[in-house]
UniProtKB/TrEMBL annotation:
It is an enzyme of class 2 (transferase). Keywords: Pyridoxal phosphate, Transferase. NCBIfam families: sufS. The keyword Transferase applies. It holds the Pfam family Aminotran_5. Its EC number is 2.8.1.7. Coiled coil: none annotated. This is Cysteine desulfurase. Catalyzes the removal of elemental sulfur and selenium atoms from L-cysteine, L-cystine, L-selenocysteine, and L-selenocystine to produce L-alanine. Catalyzes the removal of elemental sulfur atoms from cysteine to produce alanine. Seems to participate in the biosynthesis of the nitrogenase metalloclusters by providing the inorganic sulfur required for the Fe-S core formation. One of its GO terms (biological process) is cysteine metabolic process. InterPro entries: Aminotrans_V_dom, Cys_dSase_SufS, Cysteine_dSase, PyrdxlP-dep_Trfase, PyrdxlP-dep_Trfase_major, PyrdxlP-dep_Trfase_small. It catalyses: (sulfur carrier)-H + L-cysteine = (sulfur carrier)-SH + L-alanine.
Length: 406
C-alpha cells in the first residue's frame, strides 16, 4: 500500500512552516523536494567520499567512479533501457537536448530542412532548434493543440514532409499536464524515416516510462524534477544515433589520445561527457531514482491520478477560476487564472502568505502562452508527497484571492 504520510516523513522540508503556516509545496513542476536519502548521499559524497572520477587509481577515486558509473545502470533500469551504454549523463534535459542539436542535428540539417514540434514545448526543447533556424536556415513547423489541450499524434505525423529531418516533442506538458502519445508519433515518424527526440522531463516523474516500448531516438530527463539534485540528468540515445553524432563539448574523459596534430575520441557514451562531471549530483540522482523505484512508479502514478481527480473536482466548483487544459490524459499539473484580471504574480503572493507555494509566469512555454492568448498563469503542480488536504488548503487560499481581487 502507498502511504503518503510515510512518504512525507522522508522529506524533511515538508515539516517546516512558511509565513507561520505549514508548507504546502505545489511547485514540483519547476523543481521537486529531496528525500533524506538523497540529502544524505550528497552530504556523504562531499564529506567522506569525494574525489574525481575515471582518472585516479587511489581508493577514493575508485569509489567515486564505481558509484558514478553505477548511476548509468540505474537510469537505464528506471527508463527501461536495455543497454546502460545508451545513457549519456548530463546536467539535465537542457544539456541533453542541446547535445542532440549540436552533435546530431547541426551537421545534418541545412537551409530549408524542417523540424516539427508542438506549441506545448518547454523552451529547452525550442531554443536549440531556434539556434539552427538562426544559424543554418532550418524551418520550424509548429503543430497546434485542440481546445482541451490535447495534441493529436496524427497531426504531428501529417506535419512531417519530405524536408522534415527531426521531430521534437514533449511527453508531458509542464503547463497543461497533457500526456502525449509519443509512441504513436515515433512509429509514424519512423515510417517516414524521421528520428524523434522526446523531452521526458515531466512524464518520467509521474508515471513509468519504457524507452524501448516508446522507441524514440533520444529521450531526455532531468534530475531536479525527479527528487534528485540540481545539475543532474541524463539522455537515452540509441546506439545507431550515437554512431552518427560528433562530440559536443571537448575536454577530459571524452578523448582517448590527444597529440599536436591528431586526436582520438573515446567510445560512446564517454565521447559525449567532457570534463569533470557533476559527480556527487549524479550519485544523488541515482539514489533518487532508486527511491522512486522503491515506492513503485505504478504506485506513484496511481496516487497522483487520485490527487489529479480530486483537484479537478474541487476546481470545477470554482466558476471564477479559469483552468487551462482539460485533456483526458491530464496529469496533476494545473495552470489557471482568476476572472477579473488579477495578475498571477499577485495571486501567487497571496497564496504564499498561506504557506502555499505555486509558480507564476510563462513557465518557459512562450509559444503555448501565445496560443492560449495569455502572458502568464499560476501553476500548481503536484508530486508523490502531496495530499488531498493540501488541495483543500490551495482551494481555501484561492477563495481568499477571489474575495480580494473580485
Amino acid at each position: 500500500m502507498y502511504d503518503v504520510q510515510t512518504v512525507r516523513r522522508d522529506f524533511p522540508i515538508l515539516s517546516r512552516e512558511v509565513n507561520g503556516k505549514p508548507l504546502v509545496y505545489l511547485d514540483n513542476g519547476a523543481s521537486a523536494q529531496k528525500p533524506q536519502a538523497v540529502i544524505d548521499a550528497v552530504t556523504r559524497g562531499y564529506a567522506e567520499e569525494y574525489a574525481n572520477v575515471h582518472r585516479g587509481l587511489h581508493y577514493l577515486s575508485n569509489l567515486a567512479t564505481e558509484k558514478y558509473e553505477g548511476v548509468r545502470g540505474i537510469v537505464a533500469r528506471f527508463l527501461g533501457a536495455k543497454d546502460p551504454d545508451e545513457i549519456v549523463m548530463t546536467s539535465g534535459s537542457t544539456e541533453g537536448l542541446n547535445l542532440v542539436a549540436y552533435s546530431w542535428a547541426m551537421p545534418r540539417l541545412k537551409a530549408g530542412d524542417e523540424i516539427v514540434l508542438s506549441v506545448m514545448e518547454h523552451h529547452a526543447n525550442i531554443v536549440p532548434w531556434h539556434f539552427l533556424r538562426e544559424r543554418q536556415g532550418v524551418v520550424l513547423k509548429w503543430v497546434d493543440i485542440d481546445v482541451n489541450g490535447d495534441l493529436d499524434p496524427q497531426a504531428v505525423i501529417d506535419a512531417i514532409g519530405p524536408k522534415t529531418k527531426l521531430v521534437a516533442i514533449t511527453h508531458m506538458s509542464n503547463v497543461l499536464g497533457t500526456v502525449v502519445d509519443v509512441k504513436t508519433i515515433v512509429e509514424g515518424a519512423h515510417e517516414k524515416g524521421v528520428p524523434v527526440v522526446v523531452d521526458g522531463s515531466q512524464a518520467c516523474v509521474h508515471s513509468p516510462v519504457d524507452v524501448e516500448e516508446i522507441g524514440a531516438d533520444f529521450y531526455a530527463i532531468t534530475g531536479h524534477k525527479l527528487y534528485g539534485p540540481s545539475g543532474s540528468g541524463a539522455i537515452h540515445i540509441r546506439k545507431e544515433r550515437m554512431a552518427e553524432m560528433r562530440p559536443f563539448l571537448g575536454g577530459g574523459d571524452m578523448i582517448r589520445h590527444v597529440h599536436k596534430d591528431q586526436i582520438e575520441y573515446n567510445d560512446p557514451p564517454m565521447k559525449f561527457e567532457a570534463g569533470t562531471p557533476g559527480i556527487v549530483q549524479q550519485i544523488g540522482l541515482g539514489v533518487a531514482l532508486e527511491y522512486m523505484m522503491g515506492l513503485g512508479m505504478e504506485n506513484v502514478a496511481a496516487h497522483e491520478r487520485a490527487l489529479c481527480d480530486y483537484a479537478r473536482s474541487r476546481f470545477d466548483g470554482l466558476n471564477w477560476l479559469n483552468v487551462q487544459g482539460n485533456s483526458a490524459t491530464k496529469g496533476a499539473i494545473f495552470s489557471f487564472t482568476l476572472q477579473g484580471g488579477a495578475h498571477p504574480h499577485d495571486i501567487s503572493t497571496v497564496l504564499d502568505k498561506k504557506g502555499v507555494a505555486v509558480r507564476a509566469g510563462h513557465h518557459c512555454a512562450g509559444p503555448l502562452m501565445d496560443h492560449l492568448g495569455l502572458t502568464a498563469t499560476c501553476r500548481a503542480s503536484f508530486g508523490l508527497y502531496n495530499t488531498t488536504e493540501e488541495v483543500d488548503t490551495l482551494i481555501e487560499a484561492l477563495e481568499l484571492c477571489h474575495e480580494l481581487f473580485a
